[in-house]
Design brief:
Helix content is 77%, strand content 0%. The chain has eight helices and no strands. The protein has helices spanning 2-13, 18-34, 39-52, 57-72, 81-119, 124-132, 136-148, 152-157.
Length: 164
């Protein structure tokens, strides 16, 4: 549990400092392997660290390369091929989750941008509702509806929004 808390705190502290995030993530991964935990536990913790401390693809590849090089020079406790595969799979999963999150946010922004451009200010309730949506197909449908509807009330009427 401490690993998750540490990764969460590090992610918050380094939100706008990717070089520092890279260093902290590298340090956490090295420490994790030095603990000598079983591969399944390492895999789960690595997945959480990757999810919490996402890095751009170039830094992720750099980290992976550096960890492999360290393992070859025995600068850290040897990583088995299974553990390395787990690490690579976790990194790939983290990259994919980051892409999906970015695409979702772009789709949400596209809907809100069209509504604001066409109708002016959008209510906070409507904004929060659009930002809570995660389904890519629904967001694409709403983007098209935002372009076609005659007013923001017609758009809102098509949504199932919580009372508030």
């Amino acid at each position: 549990m401490a690993w998750v808390i540490d990764a969460h705190l590090a992610a918050q502290k380094t939100m706008n400092d990717l070089p520092r995030r890279y260093q902290l993530k590298r340090k956490m991964i090295c420490a994790l392997f030095q603990r000598g935990m079983d591969a399944e536990k390492v895999s789960k913790i690595l997945s959480l660290i990757d999810w919490l401390m996402t890095l751009p693809e170039d830094l992720t590849k750099q980290l992976n390369t550096e960890l492999q090089a360290q393992q070859k020079t025995n600068a850290m406790i040897p990583i088995s091929s299974f553990e390395l595969a787990v690490l690579e799979r976790g990194i790939e999963r983290g990259i994919e989750q980051g892409r999906q999150e970015g695409n979702r946010k772009k789709a949400q922004e596209a809907v809100l941008d069209v509504l604001e451009t066409r109708f002016g200010e959008v209510t906070e309730l409507l904004r929060e509702h659009v930002q809570s949506l995660t389904d890519a197909i629904e967001l694409k449908r709403l983007h098209r509806r935002a372009i076609l509807v005659s007013d923001v009330n017609s758009f809102s009427a098509e949504l199932v929004m919580p009372a508030g």
